[in-house]
Amino acid sequence: MSATTPDTAALREAAALREAAALREAAALREAIGQGSTSLGIELGSTRIKACLIADDDPSTVIATGSHDWENAFVDRMWTYSLEDVWAGLQAAFADLVSDVESRHGVRLETVGALGVSAMMHGYLAFDEKDELLVPFRTWRNTTTGRASDELSVLFGVNIPLRWSIAHLHQAVLDHEPHVPDIRFVTTLAGYVHWRLTGEKVLGVGDASGMFPIDPATRDYDEELVARYDRIEASEAPGLHLREVLPRVLPAGEEAGRLSEDGAALLDPTGGLRPGIPLCPPEGDAGTGMVATNAVSPRTGNVSAGTSIFAMVVLERPLAQAHDELDIVTTPAGDPVAMVHCNNGASELGAWVGLFRRFAEAAGTPVDADTAFETLFREALDGDADGGGLLAYNQLSGEPIAGLDEGRPAVVRTPDSRFTLANFMRTQVYGVFGTLALGMRVLANEGVAIDTMFAHGGLFRTAGVAQRFLAAAIDAPVAVTRTASEGGPWGMAVLASYLRAATDGVSLGDHLRDAVFAGGESDVAEPDAADVAGFASYLTRYEAGLAIERAAVSAI
């Protein structure tokens, strides 16, 4: 009998064919990287700066990634990041990406076909005529703009949240801050980085919609509201004209400048990155979240969970009235979106997981972060549907929807509560969704229908846990795609890749459907009736217990 049976020969031949195909694919990928047939997205998140490189012929596939951890600072009672940290972090993230490309593919990254920058939305970066920063960067996390927010909401007839750039600007005017007469340019973090890379003072419409209200007809700042604002500021700040200080607005798909020599040196001080790369409009993390989850069409929405947590729902029609809990922003293409934004997301949950990791280490059985999260999340599945009588508040900073100017994280229980690890972990995850659920309840009362809510962010990496609890919190199906953990940086890379498709007249929605998500896999969690009822019971206690948080802010 032959030592090589027909079946063995066939297996060997199939293996050889697979190996040859893999070699051809690897060679093609190296060629694409060398020729710049790629798109790069960089996002400055609250705790990480991440870079993501994708191939133009398959935007759903990530070629390489890079990242850098950073943290905001609380200086003079303001949450801020220094501009030095911005550039050090961007350089570190890009260098990490270059290293990953070389390690995976054996080629040095010198250019890309398109580049895009995104970052945390809102906030306040003000510059003078010499392009010097006038006051330290004020991030979205600051809640010192209450008077401005109230006045502008009445003036405009739409909700102007505390974190919006126009609220920060108007509060500076109201407070007669000395820098106001010197303002020549106000932008967001993404707009600032893009400006330094290209020299262009522009902003994607999605990010711009978190600076100032957008007119859906023009997909630009609402001219009537601009005129109203300029009229009321004629006496307080006579030299301040919004159109002159706000960045120009661009929809997704328009070229927004090219990487200059100075910009290339800022991003890559080694000199390896070549200038001349076209950039798409800079966007906010809300917009990249919508793109990363294919949630840019009416009756779809997405939840992005990180340091903050927010939900975006694309509207079929205007809301009946303005609501303090809701922002009206836009997709990167300029379509209206209702946004429920909560300043506090998964940071407190992460701190508790870190505490348990330290216990395991002290006990002589250390575990890595992924293992700790998965173990504790799986434990949460065994908890009572209502959390067993426990309450978890994740507020590290102020939370406008909850009526909190400052935050005090807390775990509260009654003497007869069922204090188990499973209930503790379930309520920690519930706590991430608590304030979000209060805002989503307002949308539901407006009759806004959601066919599917897409979720992304590291919180959803453990399959079937946070996704299931979110479905209970909003009583709607929640889908997680295989690209969900890549999140905003991948979404920004997709927006950069859209530059080419847009020149052919393809809409953003069609590009996502046909070129990015075609055949994509997703896991959908339908709301479980017992979980829905349990979370509703939890939310009732949670809302009543916010008085505890207010008392803690006052007392501590």
TrEMBL record:
Keywords: Carbohydrate metabolism, Kinase, Transferase, Xylose metabolism
A biological process term (GO) from this entry: D-xylose metabolic process
Molecular functions (GO terms): kinase activity
Keyword match Transferase: yes
Carbohydrate kinase FGGY C-terminal domain segment(s): 302-498
Carbohydrate kinase FGGY N-terminal domain span: 40-286
InterPro entries: ATPase_NBD (IPR043129), FGGY_C (IPR018485), FGGY_Carb_Kinase (IPR050406), FGGY_N (IPR018484)
Iron is among the record's keywords: no
Pfam family, one: FGGY_C
Family stated for the protein in its record: Belongs to the FGGY kinase family.
Name used for this protein in its record: ATPase
Organism (species): Labedella gwakjiensis
